Amino acid sequence: MTEMTTRAGLAIDSRLASFLETQVLAPLGRDAEAFWKGFAALLADFVPRNRALLAKREDLQAQIDAWHTERAGKPHDPAAYKAFLTQIGYLVPEPGAFQIGTQNVDPEIATMAGPQLVVPILNARFLLNAANARWGSLYDAFYGTDALDAPPAKPGGYDEERGAAVIVRGRQFLDSAFPLASGSWADLAGRDGITLAEPAQYIGATEKGALLKNNGLHIEVVFDSSTPVGATDRAGIADIMVESALTTIADCEDSVAAVDAADKLLAYTNWLGIIRGDLSESFEKGGRTLTRTLAGDKAYKAADDSDQTLPGRSLMFVRNVGHLMTNPAIRLPDPGSAAGAGGSEIPEGIMDAVFTSAISTLDVEGHGRFGNSRAGSIYIVKPKMHGPEECAFTNDLFDAVEDLLELPRHTIKVGVMDEERRTSANLAACIHAVRDRIVFINTGFLDRTGDEIHTSMRAGPMLRKGAMKGSDWLKSYEARNVAIGLKHGLSGKAQIGKGMWAAPDLMGQMMVEKIGHLRAGANTAWVPSPTAATLHALHYHAEDVFAIQQTLPEPAGLDALLTIPLAEGVNWSEAEITEELDNNCQGLLGYVVRWVDAGVGCSKVPDINDIGLMEDRATLRISSQHIANWLLHGVITEAQVMDSLTRMAAKVDAQNAGDPLYTPLTGNEDAPAFSAAKDLIFKGVEQPSGYTEPLLHHWRQVAKAG
């Protein structure tokens, strides 16, 4: 039982209250009593508004459901549909011409282009790895992945043959991005022989290397003949260190399982460690205890002989929870309850906004060891907003948080996830609602597809998931997101991002395909690991994104975006239906069992073909909604779903057989994990916006209660 205490009429977990007062407010010199009083007033204002916005979501969805139900069996009428969406206020008028006015944005976001990591905030080791992924070894990235087109390394220590192939590939990169005035890097005899074709690319000298810059990104060519690699290298080059993850999102949302006060306290404690610069994590590896801490800055001597530094760590965003969920860590006043018990839970997104911003104020006011934002800003990604009203609510909330924390207006910047259909269809108006604090828009196939299915749930059966990737709405969504961002002035001021490469073991394929994100105009894109960030950084050396952005067309209209991905005229075979159902059930079970039983919100989950994919709640949303849609329209039956779940449970059990802490699904069909999987499907139609959180949180709490 959580011990609660009372602050300004709020019932709050006592550990959370103590944490904020002693670890955050005291170092800031803020009065705790005044803070809690202000927080209570903020909640009194924003909780009713939050509830009203959620009610509007449900009202709009009910009207859309009724519209499709009334037209069941009739051909879809795009013109009538668009007029209907306008009539009910789902589509709003476009704002007049405007440019965003965001100021005090760090260069990693505004004027540099490069990879972005997303990392679960509950895992300190992963969080440190991501923060330290600002610089990565290109040699290690090639040696350990299939991005190098060479025979794999032989077991038993360093494989000199593969190492030689890595060195050749590294020289090819240097010749491409940093050509010498004459000859090739392969012919270089030593550090003193570097004469670049473009002298401005030379930035300075580090202790052991040369610092170079191309398309805004740095690399360090490390010369060290005392290392095994450098000793056998003609020029003495031991490695090429690549500036990799410019930015990282510490995630409180889709990639974590945070359902109570203890989970939230861990999230906020880890964020505090990042902001203060003292986060550390010890772990066993190879029979030794290792301790990981944050990396320091990279020192160098510039061409004018002055001493300079470059950031050694990724610039950190924190992703707050959306508007839907509440959390029992803090409860509103309830006169009918016992003293300290409290009434209803407060919205978790409001709690995140206040707590993560309060912690980040330590950075703004200079209390961190390293510092995060050199521009004095706090960067919050806000997911799962539906339309401009919800964006305006977030803007007002951040105003109120700034006032509560005595911060200048627009210190808190916002990243808008374009992952809900009502946001995509009204993206310009959404940007306008946060125009003086926006630093980020991002597309995401999985959540956006989940909302696409749920919004049009009653229109008819949807295409198979694979076919959706080639559908008109998705192509329009990806292109419009970039074009609308550029039209309203994001280039040079904010990030326009693309989604995740989900397969961390398929780096060769990533290197072929993910450069397409740059060519589409995105100045950042998500990668699943620090190694992937180092490899993806090479794409930003190959292409000048900001030059590409100047060539892209104006945004297209809404017709293609509003095309519903219905499987009209498709007659699937039984084998095709079973294949799709099994694929969905296997992915759903493989993710749910880790979320519910182990509290792991993001991990490499084997798919039905045993390929490890980085999965989070967005994956689950599309899988569960797709099955629910086919079930609703009679493509499949409940018996078929249960048969698939049973067979796929055995497969997931086999895939996890090597985990001594794993509890099998088979034989535990009434346990929380399998029960959650069934609920996600059979209650999928009625879930708000098709979100998985309410059911996952319930069953995780059941599992934690034992």
From TrEMBL:
Amino acids binding acetyl-CoA: 118, 125-126, 255, 292, 528
Domain Malate synthase N-terminal: 31-73
Subcellular location: Cytoplasm
Name of the protein: Malate synthase G
Source taxonomy: Bacteria, Pseudomonadati, Pseudomonadota, Alphaproteobacteria, Sphingomonadales
A UniProt-annotated Pfam family: MSG_insertion
Primary location recorded for the protein, binned into one broad class: cytoplasm
Subunit record text: Monomer.
Active site, renumbered: 319 (proton acceptor), 616 (proton donor)
Enzyme class: transferase
Keywords annotated in UniProt: Cytoplasm, Glyoxylate bypass, Magnesium, Metal-binding, Oxidation, Transferase, Tricarboxylic acid cycle
Family: Belongs to the malate synthase family. GlcB subfamily.
Domain Malate synthase C-terminal: from-to ranges: 576-658
Zinc is among the record's keywords: no
Start and end residues of each Malate synthase TIM barrel domain: 316-552
Pathway annotation from the record: Carbohydrate metabolism; glyoxylate cycle; (S)-malate from isocitrate: step 2/2
InterPro entries the record matches: Malate_synth_C_sf (IPR044856), Malate_synth_sf (IPR011076), Malate_synthase_TIM (IPR001465), Malate_synthG (IPR006253), MS_C (IPR048355), MS_N (IPR048356), MS_N_TIM-barrel_dom (IPR046363), MSG_insertion (IPR048357)
PANTHER family on file: MALATE SYNTHASE G
EC code(s) of this entry: 2.3.3.9
